[in-house]
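re: ur question from earlier - yeah i can do the single chain one, its not a big deal. heres the input i used so u can compare w yours
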Amino acid sequence: MKTNISLQNVVLTIIEYYKTFHFKIQSLVSKNSNYRKAHKMRRQHFPGLFFLVSAIILFAVPGCSTTKSIIETISPKAVAEKILTKKSDLKKRVMVLPLMDEARLGSGRAAETTASLIKLLRKSRYLLVYQAPESVPLPKEGKRIKLGILANPELIKRAEDLDMNALISGTINPIEITNKKTAFWTWPFRKSLKRYEVSVIVVVADVQHGTIYMINRESVEITFREDKLKDQDQGQIIDRVLKEAMPRILKRQRKAVTKGLAKEPWSGRILSVENNTMMINAGTEVGVKSGQEFTVFAQGETIPCKDGKSLKILGKKVGKIKATSIMERHSLAVPVGEGAFSEGQVVRDR
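and the output i got, formated as tokens:
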């Protein structure tokens, strides 16, 4: 059974409710001059009107927000996206590179931060998370561009060979330290404060097309009174700051990455074609089920970029295939209807 939920219909219902209610009030006042009864009706019916208006806001807005964001959230487009957007049931393979240590925390602490991020990401039911193996060519110093995005075609190619859907890189930014004082109304007892801002940028790249899924920056500010830090050296203070800030930052990054990748369609490829039977690079590991259908697209054009990278464009739809025999990392599939299927073509679940 299909259920069509229209924001416009809800609004019209509220308007009709109000018009009926207003008409009854005016009739009482004009015909009987019964102001007391009219006032009683207002008190009885206003909660109902208030409930309807509140319901639409609560349905569309899950939390506190500004007026602008409320209007955007209850727009018909936003409501349709909430109701109709379908997340992929198949898990995406993602490879996480070591976070770049721009904060100069030391290789040990940076490695611990990367391990913590991987551990959090592995809790997602939408992802299969792998730590980059030593054989993967990591970028050297200077082989970076703004926001920590890696301009490294060899790295993208290696991730593609490992059947990854996404490549996650990131940067631990230098800790920003600023001095300030408590609010002016605390005079003459104003205290000197020291504020530490810790931030991490995470970049998620689409391995198949060589594009960027998302860039997300998360930060936390920790403030101390300077007189409370007299007995501690800078290293001890940084330890305290990181211990409090980094878990919060990584949890936010995990949420952003999981949410972003869950919205994207799952993509795979045809590995081989023989006797009208195809092998694709996905099996029980990512959640493929027997009888599951996939849409196949031709390999599109490859557009070279100035920085040495290349952008792959998705080609035309070739047809559909259905999984018949499922293994751990691969599946066999047969055509559903006609189509010129060949090795290397892109497979999508929607």
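The chain has three domains: 7-84, 92-263, 267-348. not sure if urs matches, ping me
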